[in-house]
Design a protein that fits this description.
Shape: globular
Number of helices: 15
Largest sheet: 12 strands, parallel
Radius of gyration: 29 Å
Strand content: 15-25%
Structural class: alpha/beta
Length: 429
């Protein structure tokens, strides 16, 4: 955007030239001045577009950050700027130069300008709180002024609806009490601690206004504490994105507990590496998801366990006359095969009881009248190194690949969009 002074000068020069050329009356210059005011308005809008997101880095032990101080000074003189920023990203740097593990007050996060900045941003809709390095930042390490400013965002920022917590250690009570009106919650590398001050009655009072619509989970362990896994918190959930990896038994149980609680309201469900497991409750089938429209299943199978023997019962509706609202389905499977053994894996994958044809017939039947987008990503991976001098294994892998391709391409013929992606990941240890 041009500087406003240059725009004003341009308008002045044009106004003078127009009067001389066309003998316009002197008040015509005022009309062109309106163009200048319009340009100033466009300039203001362009600033708003460029300044929608503010990122701040708070270093442990420092009472003042230059970046936060400058932002506070600018916002105190510009009402327009305060209204422009809709996303605030706060990064807490827990690594001090001396690498001193000191929990005393001087090593806490106590930037004196940050509470004023948080209170001034009345139009923010998204708030991101994250750590910058590997060290987890404890909620108790924040100064009382910062925690108070965050708690008051439900009053100072009434439009705040999306929260991301990354690498933060916080209790369920503090989470629910601080952000009661959040509708979209993303938890990544979060550590939940109960805290000494929390009681069940206090927690139940804190979550009465806490109604999530979207929950996104990242990390190795299930981050949402059992105290928040109830219908008061999750009863209105419409989107659940499970991006956890390396699930342990406890995380798998908690994942399916949340899926069970939210099954009636879910519209979008992304299931990570917790589907092909004996822990998955078998009563959880598509009958339990009356509103589900978009489903993604990603998992990894090692050995000869049949994927479709696990998937087909999940999609088979109990009532033959009932229908599903499912519109899109993505099956993303990484199949790790011990190539080189005496077992005929290609016959195992393609035998009729495996369910390929049955799944095709089911998904294209009248029970799934809205299903139009089906994506199947199948990755064959070998548990051996192709650098060994055994070329027959290489030939065997590609034979399986071509057999699968010829068998699967004719399937799902009634769908509008099909993407069969075969990617044999060879050369893996």
């Amino acid at each position: 955007m041009f500087p406003q002074e240059l725009v004003d000068r341009f308008v002045d020069e044009v106004a003078v030239g127009q009067r001389r050329r066309y003998s316009l009356p002197p008040d015509t210059r005022g009309d062109l001045r309106s163009c200048s005011l319009a340009a100033r308005s466009f300039r203001s809008r362009s600033q708003g577009h460029l300044l929608k997101r503010a990122s701040l880095v708070i270093t442990r032990g420092q009472t003042e950050s230059e970046g936060v101080r400058k932002l506070r000074e600018v916002m105190e003189t510009s009402e327009t700027l305060r209204r422009c920023i809709v996303c605030l990203n706060i990064q807490f740097d827990a690594i001090d130069p001396l690498n001193v593990d000191d929990e005393s007050a001087e090593w806490q996060f106590q930037d004196e300008n940050l509470p004023h900045v948080i209170a001034s941003l009345t139009e923010i809709r998204r708030l991101h709180i994250r750590r910058t390095y590997t060290r987890v930042v404890g909620w108790d390490h924040l100064s009382e002024a910062i925690k108070t400013a965050l708690r008051n965002t439900r009053f100072t920022a009434p439009h705040l609806s999306s929260l991301l917590l990354y690498g933060i250690s916080i209790s369920p009570h503090d989470l629910a009490e601080t952000w009661k009106s959040i509708k979209e919650l993303t938890l990544q590398g979060l550590e939940m601690n109960l805290g000494e001050e929390m009681s069940e009655n206090a927690l139940s009072r804190s979550i009465l206004e806490y109604r999530l619509e979207k929950l996104v989970l990242h990390g190795r362990e299930f981050p949402l504490h059992l105290a928040l896994q109830n219908r008061q918190v999750l009863g209105s959930l419409r989107q659940l994105m499970d991006n956890l990896w390396g699930h342990g038994p406890d995380s798998i149980r908690q994942t399916w507990n949340v899926i069970h609680i939210t099954s009636e309201s879910l519209v979008t469900l992304n299931i990570g590496e917790c589907f092909i497991t004996s822990i998955r409750p078998r009563f959880m089938t598509m009958d339990k998801f009356p509103s589900l429209r978009h489903l993604v299943i990603r998992d990894e199978i090692i050995g000869t366990k049949t994927f479709l023997d696990e998937v087909y019962p999940f999609f088979k509706l109990v009532n033959p006359t009932s229908t599903s609202k499912l519109e899109s389905l993505e099956l993303d499977l990484r199949w790790i095969l011990p190539i080189g053994s005496n077992y005929s894996h290609e016959e195992e994958l393609l035998r009729p009881s495996n369910g390929w044809s049955q799944l095709d017939a089911l998904l294209t039947s009248s029970q799934y009248p809205h299903l139009r987008d089906v994506t199947m990503n199948i990755c064959l991976s070998a548990c051996w190194d192709l650098r060994t001098e055994e070329p027959e294994r290489f030939t065997r892998l590609w034979n399986i690949y071509y057999h699968l391709e010829s068998a699967l391409v004719p399937l799902l013929h009634s769908s509008d969009s099909i993407d069969l992606d075969f990617d044999p990941a060879i050369g893996r240890h």
